[in-house]
């Protein structure tokens, strides 16, 4: 009985590991290298591929965030897909984790930079002869990035994971009302100027004490 149980455990973990092979991949851009991992299924010759665009903030390719999230959510998703002969590209967006050096001065970083990066990832993986179908998936903010990218470069499918259902200015104002109400009106005032097409030359500093720490979020 003991030998049978040992054999079962060995076969189980051997099967799991065989479906979780990682292959490093690098995207060379004009402003630095971006780093990712291909999570490959047991059949590494032909497979469908999901390119996963992560959500907002300093979230890394595994789904972890230095602000307190250690979930490995993207990695676990990739492992489950691998069991169904679907590969996943997980990558660190510019300015985050392994791709930190490719990050620009934050004041010069725009949404289009992330869209262009994703487009280049798609074009790079399109050249991989092992890929049968290429699916682009985006989580949260990443769903917006992916939504625009797939209009510029060819993909077979697009998946939105918890994508925003409202305009981003409405979402940010709502979040501030819930988490930092003292800042909500200031943020909404700035958004109103942007809606009118007015240029914002400066942003007034707003400091508050929140959850025991000093923040300057605006």
Short synopsis of the structure:
With 218 residues, the chain is of the alpha/beta class.
The CATH superfamily of the largest domain is known as Alpha/Beta hydrolase fold, catalytic domain
* Molecular shape: elongated
CATH class (first level) name of the largest domain: Alpha Beta
Q: What structural category arises from helix and sheet content?
A: alpha/beta
Instruction: Give the biggest sheet.
Output: 6 strands, mixed
Low-confidence stretches at least 5 residues in length (pLDDT < 50)?
7-11, 207-218
CATH architecture of the largest domain: 3-Layer(aba) Sandwich
Explain what the structure shows.
The protein is α/β, with parallel strands linked by helices. The chain is built from 6 helices and 10 strands; from the N terminus they run H-E-E-E-E-E-H-E-H-E-H-E-H-H-E-E. The protein folds into 2 domains: 2-161, Alpha/Beta hydrolase fold, catalytic domain (Rossmann fold); 168-215, no CATH class.
Blueprint (SSEs and pairs):
Elements: H1 2-18, E1 21-29, E2 32-40, E3 47-53, E4 64-65, E5 69-70, H2 73-82, E6 86-91, H3 111-126, E7 131-139, H4 141-152, E8 157-161, H5 168-179, H6 181-195, E9 208-210, E10 213-215
Parallel strand pairs: 3-6, 3-7, 7-8
Antiparallel strand pairs: 1-2, 2-6, 4-5, 9-10
Characteristic terms for this protein:
alpha/beta, six-stranded mixed β-sheet, 218 residues, Rossmann fold, 2 domains, two-stranded antiparallel ribbon, disordered C terminus
